[in-house]
Amino acid sequence: MPTKSKYTMSAEQLAILCSQCSMILRSGILFYDGIDILASSYRQSEYGALLETINTYIKQGKTMYEAFKETNAFPAYFLQMIKIAELTGNLESVLHLLSEYYKKEARLKETLRSALTYPLILLFMMAIVIGVMVIQVIPVFIRVYENLGISQEETPILNIGIGIGYAILVLTALIGIAAILLYILYKRHQGKEILLKAARFIPPLHHIFEAQAAQRFSQVVSMALRSGYSLEETIELLPRFMPTASSQKQAKTCYETFLKTNDFDQAIEASHLFAPLQEKMIEVGNETGQVDQVFMELSDLYEKRVDEGIEHIVSIVEPTIVALLTLIVGGILLSTMLPLISLMLSMG
Description:
single chain; 348 residues; mainly alpha; 2 domains; 14 helices; 82% helix; transmembrane helix; cell membrane; transmembrane; membrane; GspF/PilC
């Protein structure tokens, strides 16, 4: 009997797997044979054992949904989509949609990772530059002044420069420790919710989280409807796939309103996830039978807004760090040079 996998696939790996499975089915190959081909091709890869386990389950007569579920390596949303796809006979198209979905997920995670990484790298570089200044450069000037008969106590501005340098080093170390602690906290479910709630008080981050929630809502609705879900089933499915606790409540409000009124437009309005213009687009899409298409367009729109929001923050943070680095290094250099300039002027 195959063992359950301890390996969890990333969004990027899920996108690749879904794309390959979709191509296999599109080419007319049965999934029974296709998964055998994939398992053989990826035998030496990091998730080769996982594919081999799926292959074994399929050969035992399990459905694709059952085989994927048994491994415990796939997210709930993926499994739900596969289950309904098998029931409706839309497996190939749903796998293609899942591939696009996880590509977007992977791209968003990479954007967030880059947005966090670059400022931290700049801070680290700033610490190195200031450390070299304080530990290597300033002592040279101190020795020069001592040779000239000027004690360190007679150059208060030099002491200020040294103090600033050490203060910045300590501050950078504290920022690094805080970043590590925040990362550890973010990895815990409760900690993640605490950080997300705190981020709501920072307007640029709040706007990004709002756009991300609307993007996820739109993407899931579009995919679920195109996969064969009814409108009610789709709305019921939504809360568990929203990115934050607050957006989950909004999706739940949408579902509860829909159950009470049987009015999709009113349910969308009650969720407060979308701006009035987007609500009007959804209303028109509902009236014309193009709800899935409208939500696909909204998904692209909000994805672009998330990217722009992140880029905007990075475009502010990076130059700010560079400017601070320039000012601090310039200030330290000035504090070391001014006593020498004063001495030269007095000698002149």
